[in-house]
Amino acid sequence: MLNKIFPFLGWFKNYGSDSLRIDALSGLTVALVLIPQSMAYAQLAGLPPYYGLYASFLPPMLASLFGSSRQLATGPVAVVSLMTAASLEPLATAGSEGYIAYAILLAFMVGAFQFILGVCKLGLIVNFLSHPVVNGFTNAAAIIIASSQLSKMFGCYVDKAEHHYETIWRVCQAAFHYTHWPTLLLGLLAFGIMYGLRKISPKIPNVLVAVVVTILISWAIGFEHNLVVDIKDIEFLDARALIADFNKNVDTATKLANERSKVNFALDQAGKSHDIIALLDAEHNFKVLNENINIFKKKIHHCRKVIRGLLFEGVEQPDGSIKFYSKGTLPPGVKGDGREWRIKVGNSSLDPDKLLITGGGAVIGVIPKGLPELTVPELDFKIILHLLPFTAIISLLGFMEAISIAKAMAAKTGQRLDPNQELIGQGIANIIGSVGKSYPVSGSFSRSAVNLQAGAVSGLSNVFASIAVIIVLLFFTPLLYNLPQSVLAAVIMMAVIGLVNISGFIHAWKVQWYDGAISIISFICTLMFAPHLEKGIEIGVALSLLVFLFKSMRPTLSSLSRAPDKSLRDYIEHGLEECEFVAMIRFEGPLFFASASHIEDQAMELLRRKKKLKHIILVSNGISDIDASGEDTLSLFIDNVRSSGIDISFSGVNETVMKIMKRTHLLAKIGEDHIYPTMENALNIIHSQAHKDEWEDTCPLMNVSCLTD
Questions:
Q1: Of 224, 218, 211, whose CA–CA distance to 52 is shortest?
Q2: What is the pTM of this model?
Q3: How far apart are alpha carbons 694 and 706 in whole angstroms?
Q4: For residue 370, which of 37, 43, 57 has the smallest C-alpha distance?
Q5: Quick one: residue 681, left, alpha or beta (phi over 0 = left, psi -120 to 50 = alpha)?
Q6: Distance between CA atoms of 161 and 385, rounded to whole angstroms?
């Protein structure tokens, strides 16, 4: 019982100093991959990079301590990070305080959902996400994740559009004109290092090497080059007018948003008091404000786009200050500083006296030193209701990813795996992780593979990985300041290459054409509806359920005959002849309300087709269950058959169905002497009775000539 509650106690059986040394080295190796990856995935989730480190010091050790897999490495992963961003973007601006609070709350909700499923032993619920749906979604997510990093790779930033493909088109347009070449070159260098080391020596932590090399280069060349200037230093009147117009629109939109918050409160109050007039007034005001806000958002987007597209050349003045001229408009005889300057513009208004202008690339910047404050996430009922559908999807997707990885490793190590215990471990990791400012996490394929290759003996390897992250947070965060954003983008893009699995579509199609079609449709819908990723999964799940219901409503009903190898097979599929006097019908599937009428129609068609029929043997091995509608249909069918002068018997009835037959007295109607243990047993007894006074040259069921008196 104690081992069930604390699975990690089982690690220390026959555990020695050699095992401890191997686990420590494995944990350090995993940490070398985890630290840069976690920061990259945090940005993918719309969070500051250091929140990836916060998600890497509690969850890995907790998931190992309370899970069942000893090698599974838990932490930030690509797909869950992408889903986190998709679920939170409608609620708040990425990176804002509200957004971060919602991400932490989402981790708590995901953990609670997984923990409850595990405790209630409902791990099988993950089967609602069929493999074709997951394959289609994962392939689409890999493309979305990789393409979402293009703006960081090119060093050009655009406003997000309603659909992801529109955003990517904007990035491509901006990159054509405004690519920051040092940013792109450092990103490509990181790609080359990671790919080259993976090919040359997979044991070398290629991600860490790429990060260290590019940080050193970034520091040496002064990659980041920002200045705070007065708007008067920009010798381009159009830029000043654009900034003034941008600030005016932002301020107006902010005022309207504040008014909308008040109207929203009035809307709630009117609803609670059932004041119809006040409710209608509030709804009208809310819609008007929404429309006005959308108008100003479009104006803000236009201004921001134009400002981002402005390129300047700097000219150093005698007093050491710099004047900025529009690119290509320097006064005759004046030499620029050789840099390409741009105004940094975000969602808030620009301060004309302290205008941030950059002549370099984007880096990680300041990472707060020390561990985050441990606090319980604030529970907001409205936000919880909004996040519930995303919670379920992220929980199931994350668990499916984790358990798939754990099963693959268990097959190699021979370790026993408990899916429900793994759910509990993942749940605890997310719940307690949220207290340490973590966002939702799951099992990582790449880091688990590193852990396994390093020879990890127990989950202590993940504990050591967490300790390494803690040490980095306490002492080494300043070393990460100069890490280029394009390198983190390269880390993400390199990691998601493994998610692309074209063979999954082909395999699904070979198994069943409709599985392949569902996988392709899920893939296309996920791409088309992005960033609303949940729609792709919802459509895929809906299609899977519809196919399941259709198949359940039309179960297989086959008429058997003797094949050349002496077995009884479907006479149509194998081109066999039928016996005129005995029909063996095999039914496969539960006999319930949705399939009852189909079964009745098929069986009655058999009666109409075979005029000399004397006996039906219903092969019941495939009938797994019967409900009230199915029992009623079966009872009526028996009455119709026997009223037509044809007898009916059953073979291979399982225990569950037999109990139902006894409870409903259907067994008494059939007759216990008409129940046979096997179809061969039934055929041996019934065959001679059905052929009495009848002639068949060769009976297809017995492969003998038949004439009995």
A1: 211
A2: 0.81
A3: 7
A4: 57
A5: alpha
A6: 26
